[in-house]
Amino acid sequence: MIDLPPMTPPLKRSVTIEGHRTSVSLEDAFWRALGREADLLGVTRATLIGRIDRNRPPDIGLATALRLFVLSEVQKRADQTIPATRA
After folding, report:
1. Domain hosting residue 25, numbered range
2. How many domains does the chain have?
3. Distance CA 9, CA 27 (A)
């Protein structure tokens, strides 16, 4: 058996990206993580979402790009805290 984190269905929120209103559906854990990443960068969550939107490939949806960004940032921090093993 594995321990699963608390889970919620995706929550749809409206965001403004470069003056354009859109909505994004993400699980609450990803909304919270995006907020933490924005705080670490000293920007608002909306600003961070806009930056991710501008830099994502056109064939990747915004929600996917946001989730992958969060995963990447968490993995980077984990890699920095786990000592490298010697071969």
Report:
1. 11-77
2. 1
3. 6
